[in-house]
Amino acid sequence: MKKQETLRYTGKRLAIFCLVIAALSTTAFPQTNSAPGQSPLTVILVRHAEKAVVLPENKDPDLSATGLARAEEISKMFGDAGVATIYATQFKRTQQTAKPLAEKLGLPITQVEAKKTSDLVKQIRSQSAGQVIFIAGHNNTVPEIIAALGGPKLPIIPETEYDNLYILTVLSDGSAKLLKLKY
Q1: What is the rounded CA–CA span in Å between residue 78 and residue 177?
Q2: Helix 92-105 vs helix 65-78: angle between axes, to the nearest 10 degrees?
Q3: For the chain, what is the domain count?
Q4: CB 182 within 8 A of CB 163
Q5: Residue 5 to residues 1, 9, 18, 21, 87, Cα–Cα distance (Å)
Q6: CATH code of 133's domain
Q7: Judging by DSSP bridges, how do beta strands 41-47 and 164-170 pair with one another?
């Protein structure tokens, strides 16, 4: 029984990996709207991983053991994706979600204020053409960032969901294509 579960889990990871590679490739979304020679921007967005029990006196909880395991899985999934910049909000849960990937790549985590997503979007648009960026956000900020970068308007992620993965490809004309996955 355990072997079947392992194979199912491995198959799921392989399917996600193939979809991610397709999304990151320049042929996944035709560049008809891009300027010649200008590569699209790829933004990988996740909500922070599962957090520990939130107590009234602790507004900034750490990740739970499940959340820490999910953060490690993220580093395995995107360790070879060409990520050039990693952003996370000031809260422990987003920092801890991004940390394994940052350590694997030897990159710093650029801290952004959760309430200043518009500043983050301006920075990304002005400095990141052709790059792959990873963002660990929150159930409300991830949809805000996607919409501000030209993607579709999405609802707030339900409080109980931590397995949504968004890959946004932004073309030079500002149009964007979104791939939404579960991991």
Answers
A1: 19
A2: 40
A3: 1
A4: yes
A5: 7, 6, 20, 24, 34
A6: 3.40.50.1240
A7: antiparallel
Pair of tokens at residue 34: 């891009």
- Domain containing 63 equals 2-182
CA–CA separation, 68 and 75 (whole Å): 11
What residue ranges of the chain have pLDDT lower than 50? 2-8, 11, 14-15, 18-19, 22, 25-34
- Taking the model in full, what pTM does it have? 0.82
pLDDT (0 to 100) of residue 36: 52
> What is the DSSP secondary-structure string of the chain?
-HHHHHHHHHHHHHHHHHHHHHHHSTTTS--TTSPTTPPPEEEEEEE--PBPPPPTT-SSPPB-HHHHHHHHHHHHHHTTTTEEEEEEESSHHHHHHHHHHHHHHT-PEEEE-TT-HHHHHHHHHHH-TT-EEEEEE-TTHHHHHHHHTT----PPPPTT---EEEEEEE-TTS-EEEEEEE-
Q: Is residue 89 within 8 Å of residue 46, measured between CB atoms? A: no
The label of the residue with tokens 């990996």 reads 17
